[in-house]
Write a structure and sequence with these properties.
globular; four-stranded antiparallel sheet; single chain
């Protein structure tokens, strides 16, 4: 089991950058694929980015590709989401999530594949 706590959200202007952090408890952090999702008001939760247990493989949604970067530091039990060139559409509550997924898992973009979730951190982008 793992507990997750996000931090780093806030109110920023369009074009700015933020780095979100997600600290995980427990000694089995490397057992988990880590993902970031977001949910805007009135919308469903959507996939943002994912990284495998080592950080050697990452993938970002098309909507954030080239602007957001996911990374992890297994020595610190932490996963990060570096967000650059933020725009109004990025306003949402951002959640990190953990899942034990096999190497052959293809549904890593689905929220229901993740068993553990943080409480979320609000990111608000203003014009």
């Amino acid at each position: 089991q793992v507990q997750l706590a996000e931090s780093g959200g806030g109110l920023v202007q369009a074009g700015s950058s933020l780095r979100l952090s997600c600290a995980a408890s427990g000694r089995t952090f490397t057992s988990y694929t880590m993902g970031w999702f977001r949910q805007a008001p009135g919308k469903e939760r959507e996939f943002v980015a994912v990284t495998n247990w080592s950080g050697g493989w990452t993938y970002c949604a098309d909507s954030v590709k080239g602007r957001f970067t996911i990374s992890r530091d297994n020595a610190k039990n932490t996963v990060y989401l570096q967000m650059n060139s933020l725009n109004l559409d990025d306003t949402a509550v951002y959640y990190c999530a953990a899942a034990r997924l096999s190497t052959f898992e293809t549904n890593w973009y689905l929220a229901n594949r993740y068993a553990y979730w943080g409480q979320g951190t609000q990111v608000t982008v203003s014009s």
